[in-house]
# Entry
Amino acid sequence: MPSEPVPRRSPTVAEVAALAGVGKATAARTLGNYGSVSPAARARVMAAAEKLRYRPNNLARSMTTGRTQTIGVVVADIGNPFFGGVMRGITDRCEEDGYAAIVLSTDETLEEEKAAVSVLMRQKVDGLIVASAAVTAADAGHLQDATARGIPVVLMDRLIEGIDLPAVIVDNREAIRNATRFLLREGHDRIAFAWGPVAEKPSTSVEDVLALSERDIWSATERLHGYLEALDGAGIPFDPALVTGCELTVEDTAIAVRDMLTLPEPPTAILTTETNAMVGALQAIRQSGLSYPRDVSLIGFDDNSWSSVMDPPLTMIAQPMTHLGETAAEQLMAIIAGTAEPAHTELMRTEFRERRSTAPPRTRGAPGQYASRR
Amino acid sequence: MPSEPVPRRSPTVAEVAALAGVGKATAARTLGNYGSVSPAARARVMAAAEKLRYRPNNLARSMTTGRTQTIGVVVADIGNPFFGGVMRGITDRCEEDGYAAIVLSTDETLEEEKAAVSVLMRQKVDGLIVASAAVTAADAGHLQDATARGIPVVLMDRLIEGIDLPAVIVDNREAIRNATRFLLREGHDRIAFAWGPVAEKPSTSVEDVLALSERDIWSATERLHGYLEALDGAGIPFDPALVTGCELTVEDTAIAVRDMLTLPEPPTAILTTETNAMVGALQAIRQSGLSYPRDVSLIGFDDNSWSSVMDPPLTMIAQPMTHLGETAAEQLMAIIAGTAEPAHTELMRTEFRERRSTAPPRTRGAPGQYASRR
# Structure
């Protein structure tokens, strides 16, 4: 603790200006970090501010600059390394322009997301980047409200149907379509998909699965469509037994995949659309006494450092996490500065990192088995 | 976008109160979420606020309640799953009391940490939880300032030497001491330690390593001491060649561990103190054509879902991440509410999760080799 008591009231800009021997406008520009100030004046103001323990006031700043130099970020799950990577990009880009990014995590629930947006507006952020849990415009009143009140919003990672806001997203559909085609080219035609949409009872048709997926966030739906398009393009009939309908956890995925592996015609390859789906699939393969890629091929979404030290290393789809975050921050700051183009969507591509977790399917010996029919 | 233009000025509490037909104090209590309000009055106020598009004002709230119901969290690296887990605990506990937690990430630099604290004070947070990059009191002026200005600070994950602030930490020393003893009991006496403190030139003595570690954050220093204490207790002389001095990245760890594995007396076990140190060690083992636990045993810090699907699964130390976050939030809110005990430190224990990445060292055949001397 400091040895002398410190007054609780923060000094005013005028007091800092007086001690620094500069005009109030110069002090305000320096302390508010806007406009032009000579290096000498800036140094004097900063020294005076330090000496007086000046603490900038949100509202005072807003009244002079109209800005707090702060943006709010709402993510679904701060514990997900994907959002960790995105945040690094946002933070780095913000720093360049003297902005700070504050984050709230919503646990993928719309209710918490609305509360988070309300908190950030109360904090008078200059704009918002949101990875929204909203699926359609009906869920997104809070984002339209923010925009209407002059707080620009950039969507990140997910689009919302019927909402015209700038967005920075990844081409999830192409990523999964290409990964599925890769497996098809290797000779697989029993390709499992984890995670599919959560289902209360087993789906029996593609219509069932698509109807469920309409309640999913954009990125999940796009991944499913990529899978279906690739199957369709190859003339492979869709088998609902190969799409998980379980809760989106490691444990439930392990159970669902284990069940698939005991089907009369089990999958010879598994596409996993999230880190936890891959971990669950790996558990299931081990618990079933199988090994990859010998018995079943694997491709996952969201590359990470573990994938390359698995034995064998995993073939993964990598998202441009940092670049996604940087671009969303850049778009938002351009809108705040009034230099942005009209709302548009920026679509980024993923990278396919081929390692050694896939192989052609083994030909099964038993007559009547799927592989022998080809 | 809504079809009619919305006025930019937010209505006042008085306007909301008038429309709701309640007194201003009742409207303020409802909108500020404090004190007692009848359900009927609350419903009328909320309806009026919705109709008028009321947006609570930071400062207005602060003036009536003295609080913004917001706490600031400063973490070293939001992309680290450890902090992801801690944030989940903080957020969950905050929600119970109607608080929001906003996060800033500092990339483990003191400069960014100071900027982050300044931003959060400008945002008028009611208190701070900080995983600080400060090592001694000389680095921690910004935290003492905050406290002096009435913004309570709870340290999380790391202590700062010479600073008396409440803290919630994990017993890193005991965790590593126990893990080292586990390896000693299995018969290892060439136990490598990754990460040791970053060194510009190779350390030649325990004094060298300890001097370097004095510039490290608290948790890293504690882990090193746990290792040294266990060796000391078993009468094993310290070998500086078995402590990495590389930069704290996956790539540099892989190089450092690979070099150790070519020593005349290579380590038979490796203790890794961070996720990325484990990934680097695994790369080195594979690149050296070795396998674990046959050629080298492995124990890591910070358990995660991948550890259990590695083949063989990894023996790991698990930190109580969520509980750590919950407890830090609980302490801070108690201080804000004025119901806290005087500053104290809460020390939490880790869990040792034994899996299958360790085994007794192989006896080496060549005469003069270390193992044959015992």
Summary: The mean pLDDT of chain A is 88. Chain A has 13 helices and eleven strands. The CA atoms of residues 30 and 37 of chain A lie 7 Å apart. The radius of gyration of chain A is 26 Å.
